[in-house]
Amino acid sequence: MSRELNLKVAQGFREAFARDPQGVWSAPGRVSVIGDHTDEQDGLGFGFGIELRTAVAVATRTDGKITVATDLVPERAEAELASITPSGPTASWKAYPLGMVWAVLEYGRENPPADTSDDPDPSVFLGTGLDVFLSTELPIGGGLSSSASICAALGTALSELWQLNIRPFDLACLAQRVEQQAAGAQTGLTDHIICLYSEEDKDVFFDARGNDVSVIDVPNLAASQLQSVIVNTRESHRNWSQELEQRRVDCARAAELLGVQSLRELRLEDLEASDVEMDERVYRRARHIITEITRVLEFTRVLRTDGPNAIADILDQSHASLREDYGVSTERIEFTVDLARAHGARGARVTGSGLGGSVFALMPVDAIPAFRADLAEGYAEHGWEAPDVYEVSSAAGARREL
């Protein structure tokens, strides 16, 4: 599918700008298997990139203008290189491509290319104007990190075109800066790490406390007659929503009350034994973070030692915590999770931030056709828009395509 996407953005660029792009770059979406929200408290994440990708066709220009066109909406995003800056948190798609240009430009001024490193004024790095055409196979608001995918693809392109040779981890940090300062979503690093570090037949384990990234072998799902399945519930979510921000604030408040820098420092026994007065909601948010960090470690151990058939209980416990303690499930998500389990899923849970988005389920291969049919029927009976169902496997991270 990505080949068609690459050709589409290259042709879209030609039609939008009447010239050829200098290249096409892409990045995957991601599946968060377990560990959601813990990276904001120095926690752990586990996931993988998927074949559904975002692609950008890019060429430099000499007049300092930046224009981003897309087939997703009719309008374009425009800015001047000399004055580009985040206009404050904004719930607009423009925040991501323009924010990434700004973040990479700032990086270049602080870390200029080798041929300007001897100049006493690092701001000599001025970058270039840009024409960009972007498109994506990912559902916008579907909980599969379309925003992180945009940042990873464009950041990788600019690193090459501007000869900055930015390390993947630094690109992830720049993308997080875009999320926080341009889009107003106070998210952690994990989504960006997965989009940049993912490899075929690999999972990505991220420890936010030490900023350690481990790329590990995927277990042989085919040998167990299992398949990773994603269901986009078509119930859109937004990382910058006030509901998600309140949960982050609650966790920070819990850490403050308990006298620790982050909830990573605590065990569940510490939370339960504390005599600190704490709002019940804040307590439950903290309990999710603390127990989820433990579950990520247990999940990783069990997956590698006992195999994919042994992880169902851990994934189901993770979803229960997201529903009951973190409060990010919905009726549609619960219906989807319950139906996946009824069809024999080896674990099913909301993936990503929640409050909409997608569900991840590890399904027996022979159960998928009936699962698809019952999903369509059940959604129709509820009056919900028909879900998108994807059978996915791990895919390469951000890269140049053409």
CATH fold title of the largest domain: Ribosomal Protein S5, domain 2
Please give the radius of gyration in angstroms: 21 Å
Q: Helical amount among residues, as a percent range?
A: 25-40%
**Low-confidence runs:** none
Number of helices: 11
| Shape by Cα distribution | globular
* Highest-level CATH class of the largest domain: Alpha Beta
Determine the oligomeric state from the structure.
single chain
Derived from helix and strand composition plus strand pairing, the structural class reads alpha+beta
Q: Tally the structural domains.
A: 2
Core attributes:
402 residues, alpha+beta, Ribosomal Protein S5, domain 2, Alpha-Beta Plaits, 4-stranded antiparallel β-sheet, 22% strand, globular, GHMP_kinase_N_dom
Q: Outline of this structure?
A:
The protein is α+β, with helices and mostly antiparallel strands.
How are the SSEs ordered, and which strands pair?
Blueprint: H1 2-17, E1 23-34, E2 44-61, E3 65-70, E4 77-80, H2 95-110, E5 129-136, H3 146-161, H4 168-182, H5 190-197, E6 202-207, E7 212-217, E8 226-235, H6 242-257, H7 268-273, H8 280-305, H9 312-324, H10 331-342, E9 348-351, E10 357-364, H11 368-382, E11 388-392, E12 399-400
Parallel strand pairs: 3-5
Antiparallel strand pairs: 1-2, 1-12, 2-5, 2-6, 3-4, 6-7, 8-10, 8-11, 9-10
Protein name: Galactokinase
Family: Belongs to the GHMP kinase family. GalK subfamily.
Domain Galactokinase N-terminal: 12-59
